[in-house]
Amino acid sequence: MMILPTGRSRIRSASSPAFTLIELILVMAILVVMISLSAPKLGSFFRGRALDSEARRLLSLSRYGQGRAASEGIPMVMWLDVKNRVYGLREETSYEPVDPKAVEYPLGKGLELELRENAMSRSNRMRLPSIRFLPDGSISDSSPMSVRVYDREDGASYWLSQSRNRLNYEIKDQPETQQRTRQGY
After folding, report:
1. Which helix (H) or strand (E) holds 157?
2. Alpha-carbon Rg of the chain, whole angstroms?
3. Most buried residue, 8, 33, 43, 157, by CB count within 10 Å?
4. pLDDT (tens digit, 0 to 9) for every residue of the chain, 185 residues total?
5. How far are the Cα atoms of 1, 34, 103 from residue 144, in angstroms, in the given order?
6. Among 173, 180, 177, which Cα is nearest to 159's?
């Protein structure tokens, strides 16, 4: 004969707290509906974050190039390869043939670059549009006025534009000329 400890039974009662298969299927169906409704919004949210991150990376690279030019006393070139969707920073080739600190970044998925220029500056080695930072920390007059980073799908964009005093670049949501006309300049 088998003796069980008091107060416990091996047989579960019908009122035990558990989920039925129908309840689980119903909860899963509700989750699927909720995810399918929110997925398009999440996709556009993440595309917007990628655009914002790319614009900030361009701005950071411009500030890094400007600081490096001033600290090392050598002109720096931030080149933009629109066709191959990459950009980078290196010393001007007339000073050093190879830059050990040169950097190169691919453009984010679904993003494009566009230049608005006063006069096109091209890097000597690659014949690409470029922003040239001089050893005194200023920006060369032949550098583009602004660079547009935009999303191919929804057309959202940011502009990396020269500031009013032309001492650095800053992120704007529209080109400088449109801002001036809107503000009455």
Report:
1. strand 157-162
2. 29
3. 157
4. 666 566 555 555 556 678 899 999 999 999 999 888 887 777 666 666 788 899 999 999 999 999 999 999 999 999 999 889 999 999 987 777 788 899 999 998 888 888 876 544 454 445 788 999 999 989 998 888 889 998 888 788 899 999 888 889 999 987 654 444 444 44
5. 94, 46, 20
6. 173
CA–CA gap between residue 76 and residue 136 (Å, rounded): 11
Q: What is the third-level CATH fold of 36-183?
A: minor pseudopilin epsh fold (3.55.40)
Separation between Cα atoms, residue 148 and residue 177, nearest integer Å: 13
Residue 105 and residue 87 in contact, taking contact as beta carbons nearer than 8 Å? yes
Evaluate the CA torsion angle 33, 37, 40, 44 in order and state its sign. negative
Q: Evaluate whether 79 touches 129 at the Cβ level (below 8 Å).
A: yes
Residue carrying the six token digits 């043939």: 97
Domain ranges of the chain: 36-183
Contact 58, 147 (CB under 8 A): yes
